[in-house]
Amino acid sequence: MWVRAQVLKWKRRDGFDKIDLYTRGTLHSTVWGTVLCVSLLSVTHPVRDSDAPVALIAGTVLTAVAQGVCSVPLVPRALGGYLGREAVTGRLIFLSAVLFLANAACLLTLGWFTGTEEYPELPVALGSVTLPFLTPLVLAVPVWVSAVCVAAIAGGMTGGALLAGATGSFALTTLAGIGLGGALVASTVRLSAWTLGITQKLRDARDVQTRLAVAEERLRFGRDMHDVLGRNLAVIALKSELAVELAERGIPSATDQMVEVQRIARASQQEVRDVVRGYREADLRTELLGAQGVLRAAGIACAVHGDGDELPSPVQSALGWAVREAATNVLRHGDPRRCDIRLETARGSVRLVVENDGVTPDTAVVPGSGSGLHGLRERLAAVGGSLEAGPTGDGAFHLTAAVPLPSPRTTATAPPETG
Length: 419
What we know:
single chain; alpha+beta; Single alpha-helices involved in coiled-coils or other helix-helix interfaces; Heat Shock Protein 90; 13 helices; 5 strands; 71% helix
């Protein structure tokens, strides 16, 4: 049950959270994997059979574990410093360097007691002991400093192996292994952090784009309201002042001015209703293009078939709201990778079909349970339409909005609207 809960929790995360958790988990697991490797190589059969003191063996293992414990707060802080979220304290880096040098000295001393020829695992142990120190270091310093540190570590380890009695070939193997391994680890860690940083910038840019779109729409609506009401309110104020002056002088035309004020006020009320109605109506073509753009920006492959330009305005508005609600559900539920939107016009009706993958049983929308789908059903019912939505059982979600088309005869004989 715990494993299933963790799997479901993982699926609920968005793309950035998954990459962030994967990167941090990889760095920590790499560090603790090398700690385990050093601990096991410190108690191998050649070491136990040598004259090495038990205290030295125990100290090597404990120092390796201490390196892992030190990396627990140091790795996330170094990653946060690389991403610009927080600063890395020099004390932790200094402590990590001291533990690294102590562990390396313990391993070289074990090699001296055991004999490098009898301890062939020593280069692997020396290479492993550098990872808990090198992993956060490459994130906290510039690239050239990382390269210098890798070269210095490889040279220092090689010199230590020679002091421990290693042969020339053994020392050369140690130099090549630690140098190449350190360079590979440094580049991999740096590349992982760089990828995470790019993903964070993309998410921040998308959030900024969303906020700008909302702000732009508010400005547009405010501009429309100002254009509609500004002139009329100014006229109402002037005519009201004129009516007051005429009434104070006892001139009968003051009544005519107030009648004009009443007419302008009613016209303004109707214009405001028209603005709000136009603001709330959904244009089908615009909604299709907007849904495709939003889904693609979220990393979801979206294909749109049909535009519905020939459909009547009430049908376009109802289906436009269906497209908007469907796109919202795709973004909020599951972890989709593709979405298909199709407009299918049959005889006497039109259907909007939206299908996406990446739906799990716990994230699938139950038909009729959400307020968005409930409101969409009401909008479709106003034009005689219907809605069907739900998971298909194979990890996909299917939404179908069907709206009947008015017959040409009904449209032609419909009485004209009166104002």
